[in-house]
Amino acid sequence: MPKVFKFLRTALAPNTGNAVPRAATDRSDGSRKASFTSSTDDTWGPDFDPLTVSAFELSELLNAQAITSVQIVRLYLKEIEMHNRRGRQLRALISVAPKHELVRIARKLDEERARGKIRGPLHGIPIVLKDNIMTDEKLGMDTTVVGVVPMDGIFSLSKTFDAVGGMAKSAKDLVALIDAMMVPTSREENARSPHRSFKIKPDFGTLRIGICEPTIWKAWRKSGRINGDAERFMKYDMIVQSMIEMGVDIVYPVELPNQSSLTIDGKNCFEPVVYSEFKDCLAEFIRDFRVTKMHSLAEIINFNLDHPELCLPPTCPDQNDLMAALQATTKREEVNAARQHLQTAAGPEGLDFLFSSQKLDIIIAPGDAALSTLAAAAGYPTAACPLSALKLNGQPFGLTLASRPHTEHMLLHFLTAYENIFPPRALPLALSSVPLQDPNPEPLPDQPIIDLILHEWDTSVSCSADALADWLNARWRKSGFCVLVGSGVHCDVIKNLIVYSPRAYE
């Protein structure tokens, strides 16, 4: 191995001091150790860390018949049950599909795999959906919707700036995910290019890459002070210098257009567009529901005001953005002018000029630079790439990438090559670094919860099974019972329990 690569692997590797556990330096390409145990009840399998294992690694275990999809699902459900609303109370998931339904689907996919039918690289691997993506009503979750095509069930704040994307633990995972997501549908107005299968690339090849000077960190480089900005700059500069030594075709530095170009007379052009489009998107989205008690933005705001103990916690006590969108009175022609200005200033007069003048395929900037804002205004694809993690607290930081419209394959080319060449990403801090929370917190006021459940849970399952289970458990604890109900309990059972026997738990 050349000296420069030995140096890079040492210098760019995540910190191994006390702040970051030893596991953070393990490779994410399959070299992580796994122990195996036999079982006949589909409960146990390889001993891996569900917090850090990638979909690619799980796929390899499935292909080797070292684990089943049922075992994977059971393990993740166990972790969710332990730490989502109990234990460390991460509250990472709003709702979880019923356990019996997830296991049924996983077992079906295991049977297909046994017959040699594999639908794709993500066959049998569970995924998480953001809460603005609706689910099949058969899963019994909060956000269920009827739709004609896949995009019908996705709520966006703005048609101009929002697009569907994916997050993954590795570039290989992201390739598989985006490849599955990028099939155009009839509602995708911007899907003018044919669908392609994305590839995993071992090197940067002929990509011509423009790299921005990290001006936001310049002052700290000059001062020599050891802090987060200086550490970020050092890692960023190492990446740049190593790519130069590798002979990658780069232009450094390139200068991004100024963000002030996205304003008119000093006024933000994003707000009038987003607030105007938000109301239209919300109205269109609500129309897709079979059953809903909410029919407008005003009704949502009033519901939140009527139930502040549920919808307006101390950390988010107001509805400023919702109120601003409701009260927005910007004229349609002014909204159109702001939208056109953003697209022109960020596109033809901004990033387009930079791409064309330097003959670039990709532009790279620090993760907290203006590139993502400019790309969103222009409607260009973007990606995020891990760089390292701060020694002080393990906080990750990375790079932002942008390319021209319909060139997502170039972004994935860079990401997979980067992952293959540079040290593995900094893994999250161990779960043990998160303190355990009080297992018996003071429950929310009972009567508003009871009233809300009885009001909402009448004709359809429109309340979270998780929230309902938490309420029941709190009530039973106060009554001296030790029974704990999990979110996997069948929704119809809970529904009948509450609607027909409400006073049994008062």
Describe what you observe in this structure.
- Helices cover 41% and strands 7% of the residues.
- A 5-stranded mixed β-sheet has the order 2-1-5-7-6, with helices on both faces. Strands 3-4 form a two-stranded antiparallel sheet.
- It has 17 helices and 7 strands.
- The protein has 506 residues and is of the alpha/beta class.
- Among the domains are: 117 residues, no CATH class; 60 residues, no CATH class.
- A hairpin with a 6-residue loop joins β6 and β7.
- It comes from Pyrenophora tritici-repentis (strain Pt-1C-BFP).
Show the helix and strand layout.
Blueprint lengths: L2 H10 L42 H9 L5 H15 L15 H16 L56 H11 L26 E5 L5 H6 L4 H19 L2 E6 L8 E2 L2 E2 L1 H17 L10 H10 L1 H4 L8 H8 L4 H27 L3 E5 L4 H8 L3 E8 L6 E8 L4 H14 L24 H11 L8 H14 L12 H10 L6
Parallel strand pairs: 1-2, 1-5
Antiparallel strand pairs: 3-4, 5-7, 6-7
Brief description of this entry?
This protein is 41% helix and 7% strand. With 506 residues, it is α/β, with parallel strands linked by helices.
Record field, number of beta strands: 7
Residue fraction in strands: 5-15%
Shape: globular
* Unreliable residue stretches: 1-41, 140-150, 185-194, 219-225, 457-463, 480-506
Which structural category fits the helices and strands? alpha/beta
What is the overall number of helices? 17
Mean pLDDT: 75
Oligomer class: single chain
- Order of strands, widest sheet: 2-1-5-7-6
Straight-line distance between termini: 70 Å
Level of helix content? 40-55%
